[in-house]
What we know:
CATH superfamily of chain A: Fe-S hydro-lyase, tartrate dehydratase beta-type, catalytic domain
Number of strands of chain A: 7
CATH architecture of chain A: Alpha-Beta Barrel
Structural class of chain B: alpha/beta
Order of helices and strands of chain A: EHEHEHEHEHEE
CATH class of chain A: Alpha Beta
Structural class of chain A: alpha/beta
Shape of chain B: globular
Mean pLDDT of chain B: 96
Radius of gyration of chain B: 19 Å
Largest interface: A-B, 42 and 45 residues
Order of helices and strands of chain B: EHHHEEHEEHEHEHHEEE
Number of domains of chain A: 1
Number of helices of chain B: 8
Number of helices of chain A: 5
Strand order of the largest sheet of chain A: 2-3-4-5-7
Distance between the termini of chain B: 14 Å
Oligomer: heterodimer
Radius of gyration of chain A: 15 Å
CATH topology of chain A: fumarase
Helix content of chain B: 25-40%
Amino acid sequence: MKKIISPLNQKDILVLRAGDEVLLSGYIYTARDQAHKRMLENLGRGKGTRRELPFDIKNAVIYYCGPAKTPKGKVIGSCGPTTSKRMDAFTPFLLRKGLKGMIGKGSRSKDVRMLIKKYKAIYFLAPAGCGALISRCVKKVRPVAYPDLGPEAILKLEVKDFPLIVGIDAQGRSVYRF
Amino acid sequence: MKSIKAKKIIDTVADLCVKANCVLRQDLLRKLKSVYNQEKNIRAKKALGAIIENARIARKEKLAICQDTGLPIVFVELGQEVRITGDFKKAVLRGIELGYKRGNFRESIIRDPLQRGKPAYKGAIVHIDITRGSKLKLTVLPKGFGCENKSQLKMFNPTAPLKEIKDFIVNAVKSSGADACPPYILGVGIGGSADYAGFLAKVALLKNINAKRTAFERDLEREIGKLHIGPMGFGGKVTCLAIKIESYPTHIAGLPVALNLSCHALRSASATL
């Protein structure tokens, strides 16, 4: 099984093929529906609002996840992926800004798949519905932005050996056959 | 007349929330283990293995099986000889809040569907049915929304052939693909009215998934199996763990069919007072 580090290195991504199993370590950012909406709104607006993204998106990996609360003595609660498709409308913009990887569950639109190819990015699948299992891979959690969104706030997670499967590779190939 | 205090209801509902979210239903676990043993496709088998391992970790470490601890749906069967002291509905909602807080579950409920706002624990769907006798049965079904989003309703013509209904259900699963955490459990409501068919589809999810199947359920399972979506979308034998159908009298002019899709983490727990 291949081990890769995030923020991602272009060379590491280019050798990956749809269906490959990888273990991801390093830093990733959680963001789901409302966080995506807000990131784009903030950038699109005129003066008075922040014109930059709340974290360095260059070569970054976004994890479509809204974790459960953290029980006492744990680093994080259950934290599996949410349905990626709902983020499709926001993804082109983030890819243009330098986003390199996404982690979620399920398929993506054709547009997103083509853009993943164009920007030589990558889309990973996390074990869907296995949030308790995944919580063991998270070593550290730091809030980054939008705390008013509750579980939809952006968090920076330090992960170790997060088991993933390449869903769409940098050549735009998908693991799904349907 | 039997008397039950509101406090007892709060405690029971809170316990049920924790149990439903952390302990996978026994009928489901049994089914998952049996399909795991039969699966030959390596990637699909691994996915099933992760699901079973996740259930073990969740139970042992008292973690939510899935971070989406759902919109809580509560089914109440209230015996007509039971007298409740205190505010019954408030007690149920308070129990939910307490249980979700105790379990460190996710605040997934927003007060205003259009304005959105900060999610909290407040809010649940409560179905109350009056039954005979002196027992109070409470069931909590936390429904994840990745799969709830894929649910569908169709009002068929009363003369529609069975094949049309079958196609509707199979196509709904097909269009869900791998998005809603397969292998799925399908609750189907046939008959009643538009809203009642939706209710029946949800109730169907409470049935024992290993119970004897009807010919129609078997037939549907076979058709859905041909989609080869498989665990987490990786192909293999099992796209659907079970299909459960509930039906009810309906009008001569109509034939409502509702499908409530559940992910592999179908969660519910019941208690009788």
